[in-house]
Amino acid sequence: xxxxxxxxxxxxxxxxxxxxxxxxxxxxxxxxxxxxxxxxxxxxxxxxxxxxxxxxxxxxxxxxxxxxxxxxxxxxxxx
Length: 79
Fold this sequence. Notes:
Blueprint: H1 5-78
């Protein structure tokens, strides 16, 4: 479902007519900045999510070890 060459040309002509040849570089620059900021924000969220997942895994491991230790202590007292 990609765009054909004809459709791309029509879109480019419409953009040229709407904004003029002098504004297109400004628009492209603004679009590039917006894309960069979006990617930076996305990467930040991904990193933060990964850090939270790592912390949750460490917490779960610590809880498992604590439960195992309590069970071992209980078994020693009973046995």
